[in-house]
């Protein structure tokens, strides 16, 4: 069985048309709604999609043998930097509601991971209201956490700052993991949103390990997307400092979890070696950026399950841990 | 026959989902396109629409007896203040192309009025490239002009400033009218986009009449939306200054054109009296903001043709001028 | 009998020389004073004035038959945006004191309406100290309220914001009306101070009617200058939204009062029709901007009393209501 | 005979009321004018003035035996930091015209020193148009130069910067001296305008002597007001640097002129010793800040002529140089 | 005997290399330390120094006969405007510790005057922690006070502002004097740090005398460096205002102390005459800016003791007061 | 033989004391110089250094068997973001001169790689003057290129922007490689300078490969420090986009060179596999951040040569290519 902790919702155009309307009206039409029917939701899962290589979301899962997928908002659509804050609140709630409806329509296939209305015009304590609603009322099993709600426009507080403590408290109280996953990235930042994900994950790991967050919240469960940004590859760079302080960076790294959403086998192997099999959960971000076929291998670029299976050094128990058991324990599935 | 100079395109959700994608990716996916089929275009014109009181765009026109409508982008969607500028260029072109396709599908019903990619990161001379493309290649008969491309974020140059001269030059050269119509309005401005239309029209008329624009460009054709904002109602206020300068404000006002897009009869009467029947063209903005039924009269609020017909003092020739002849002359239809 | 609720003080040059000195010294000379004698005050009322068409303030009133005028500071001189705040406080107090002295000199002719020291460096609660002093100590009967104390330099909180609540509270407690009347308007705003009046009145009406202010303060008395900006003319535009929300915009409008300070008969008629005779008070702003003779009619542009009398549909009771009774009730004269 | 190079115009209140009107209207009323009559001009010179210790301007001059005074605008009124620039241009011209009229009315008593419209929104080359007009058309003999046109709001280019070269060029071409004299001083700067004068003079001397201005313009004539700010007193501080560079600071200082507008004898003596009698011209700034009687001595504080006469070490020729001859040569009187 | 209240520490290069490292790492290496040995400290006092005219610190003191010198941080190195604030705290503490060690090595020669970590990111109350540590734990006898912690980047609160009250309170409580002495000066300010000293002293005296600080803290002991900036020379300018307010500026000035750090005899004489011998303490800033020989006299420019001795009007008791007694009383030595 | 392309200069404290003096005086003392003797230079190479684990620079090289090292400025000291620009120019030149002197003292051991005065107040064309001086006059073999001259204060132009073209032109003309290596990192950025290196390298590779730089400058030689930031590890992420565009990301990556400055064997192996042995050059950054002994292995963390030798899959030719031959070809040694 395969559990994929890193999937994003495939929603009808109406959801994003709704978002466009909110941004254009700046809320003058009131909250309203996307007005999506169940048929539209089903079609969005089953219709072949040009962005996904001409295949539907469910076909992708079936082909890869993904039995259960945790789905969250499409991160680049989350618009945390837009103003006024109620636009962010409205669109986040509409997106989470859409996810909840899809989970109801396909209860064996999907579980929800919610987005948070991370407007910097609000207090983090306000973000957690939506977290509570999603977990307690809608049955979600985790949340995305965007470490840069300004989306590249300016610098937010670092993840070690006390600014973020209300979020850690709520996550611990609800006992659900947060997946580190930034959203959009706007000029003047120099990177695309996709590269911004990587940069933010690198910053996030460094900030968490160099601060007292994980000491102050020993029960906190953090999953770092995309194999932890640059850190596992560059981890030696941090060893010297850790040794000088009398610690071991490898031990610190193991306080976090990482998904396998890397698209080459050598990178996944490096990750597993660096942080340990028990800290890794299978994540494919499928369908998405990687949903194109490699002309040389014929595989989908995001056939990460095949890359994992290709790793000969993993025994069956380790494969199962990565594909299923670790996620079950972490997300209490 | 009724020609309505003030209509906006009713496009499928995919156009605005495309816009949402551009804003979220900030262009990282490339220009791409909305991928709208002809069937989707037709459906968007013919499907009952909750925002329009449960009636379709074409049904609205049929019911009102509007034979020909000039359609332009939905102004509040134009996103002129977004960055980088190529997002504005891409979405403006996609919208104008969509309008052109609708005009091809319904050649007897619609003519195009284009939006311009009015990013302040571009020079006005760059905006006019799209104007030329729409008029010369796509057969459009006019353009919207947003007097506030910053959409409320900061103050743009006033309309009398030489900043705008490249636009006036291109309009004169192509011999098409510009309709003054602002777009969105963002905080910290205090008004909704809809009220911003009115405020900008007021500023536009004052700026044009107090500058040398209309002297420098005697052939320039300007249509002020929504009956000229506050100016006809407040025109007496400007009389004193004009008299002190040896002129008459009423004469100056008649250098501009105005549409009838006011929703009460007394206002339309005041407009006609203030600027003259020959300076007015019928505009309904139908379907749109006013597409709701008045529970007292049973009329649609935007049944502006009925309000005009209700004005007893207008003779048949004047009615025809307002409904058809003035628009034919102005837009060379 | 005619009561004119909209007059501004005609003060000697020394008041403005004093202001100039404050601005130049930024208060380094201390508060000092304008040093105006009673003779200078009388002369300023009685001397022919080039700005007023060569006629004195009192002659204007006599000619128009205005028996009692409420006089307030010349709004464009109020300099709310200047810094430090004590300059605004000193000049406001000096101006209000000047008005009080004129009312003492001409007790049958004038009543005072005070300006407030609306520096944004102060709290609104601080502004109301001057309001209390004027009403309680000096016998003033109302106040001007500038909705844009930044005078065009940046955006203030909208009138529906809780920022303004201390002002509403004080007005209700003292039971005096506030007249909405902005002050100066500085670059980068694009409009003259005179047009800024109109724009701010438009914003003010929209903000009050779309917020809970008038519900939270049912006793609050607001007079909107210059016939309400653009709103009565554009009121149909707001009908659709009100209907969608289950209300009637016309009913909401009637929670406010409006003065007749419009300079054409059709506009006054439209106003009376839109909001009702009982919501209107006579205001002429005489002498002022409109104090120039129309070469065609020979009338002063600001002979608003003649325009009102020209409206044949008004019966004697309605004329009296507009000219006297409504103001008596509103201002408790 | 006494020539006083440092006097400021005593103008009627109407000039500053005009300024106040310009600032309040931001020019919306057009340039207009102060509308001052010759009688008002004469009265302003002859009327006892509370600000001047209850004595008139001319009485002050008579009492002190000042035969000829160079009068310039009241510096603190010059409002160089106001916007838009045309306000500065209008008020500067009106002030200079007023000075010219006074010089015409009292041709034996006064010569004009002009103010410049030093808005930073204009180029310095534009400022010199008014300089040329005053010198060539109105017969002025010099100009004030404000080294801080931002009036404390932000930092201008230092006086050694090439920004100022067009001013030096015009002064040399016209062969008239510039008197260094700043204008107002606004928050956030921490000093009053009066202390700002001193600070700016200190900066000016340092900047001129540490740059190549006086080498590039060997004919340039600069008079530093108020005895050169802090420099003569602190000049030893600059000696070490000059010696390290192989020069002598005292020699450099003598490239400039200084007025005697210091209010204690020891300071004047220090000045004369530091820069030499031949570099000093008599300046009293009378009537002005110092026009109050010292209760101990009974003298006016600004009786600087008495302080100079008290210096026993000066012989008759030196006294004459300070009181008359140096000024005649410098200003070509 | 000569006590010099105005000396600055001569520290090894390692102290400033440490500072450079802090600025480059922004603290990423932790606080660390400069790692200076006692031998390096001694060498820095005894080694001939190119910046000091090729002579060592101690040789300078010996040659001038300075028996005891109060040493403080080199002001221009204090970097109060750097960020984050802990860099300022670390470097200030390291510098004060270095001074304390030198005082221990040469207990008969030096006493410490501390710098404060005047980052504007901290509260003034936080600055005084270091003051207490230095006075109470390290035996320092006074402190430098920088009136412009922004170092020219922007305007700080004026010295009369309540912002500074926690500093006054701590100084009074500890009964030690503060010497007014600014630090660096960065663009956009127009002056060098050395001229900035003078400007800030001028501002400081004016601010203190025009505020209620010296009334609120009658025990406060303030020493103004460099003879008080411009004030003694320009003091007549302030007389008029004081007389108008019923006071005498000379009396106010005598509430402060001044050092003699002026480099010409006439300036020192003026200072003594203006404020009185009893308000002056000997200060040489030796070795430092003035440590260069005058080719004409052969004296060091900073041989201020010779200038004082040259003043014939001072009797032996006055000389002793300036050179020793006043400092003993003020600093409780 | 081992050639190490990534070494930084070990300079005496005087160089950084000089820098500290420049920053404190903002250049008021003139350019001056660090005044370092040859003995001090030699001592800095040979003295045991606490920061380097108690061992000297040369001992480190000897122990590792590094025969030739390319040394450049310590990047975190380069202070590109300081102002005014001439400070950056002066310190850069002083540092490069110091490197040149060390290369002269130890001609068999060191070659110079220069820093550039990358102040954003200068044009990039101005930076290349120093590049030319170093290569043409001083014999340097390459340059560091800082991709973020603002050092975290704000966003610079991306590396694909035409802003950088003058640098590419000069590098090609001189035929020397640029090593991508950022400098300091200041708040508000969230990362230490060390992590900033990694983030900037990630951005640099993405920007170069997604722009036309490498097409426009086919001869350009770029070495990316620290194994290319995150890119080799995350390279699969970029495959999908490249395939969609018809290319292969792996081929694009091979247009660049990378050093081996990673501190774990698995990371170096991944790098070699991802970009090819022929694109890699040995770099140790020794002595530096990694100069601490691992308590488990007893090795220095920066014993990168041992990690390379541990890779069994590399044959002797490949080892030689990495350790020597590739660097010889790239740097023409």
UniProtKB/TrEMBL annotation, chains A, B, C, D, E, F:
PANTHER family documented for this protein: 2-AMINO-3-CARBOXYLMUCONATE-6-SEMIALDEHYDE DECARBOXYLASE (PTHR21240), ISO-OROTATE DECARBOXYLASE (EUROFUNG) (PTHR21240:SF28)
Keywords: Lyase
Pfam families the record matches: Amidohydro_2
Superkingdom classification of source: Bacteria
Entry keyword annotation includes Glycoprotein: no
Name this protein carries in UniProt: Amidohydrolase family protein
Organism in which the protein naturally occurs: Pseudonocardia yunnanensis
Classification of source organism: Bacteria, Bacillati, Actinomycetota, Actinomycetes, Pseudonocardiales
InterPro entries cross-referenced by the UniProt entry: ACMSD (IPR032465), Amidohydro-rel (IPR006680), Metal_Hydrolase (IPR032466)
Occurrences of domain Amidohydrolase-related (ranges): 3-333
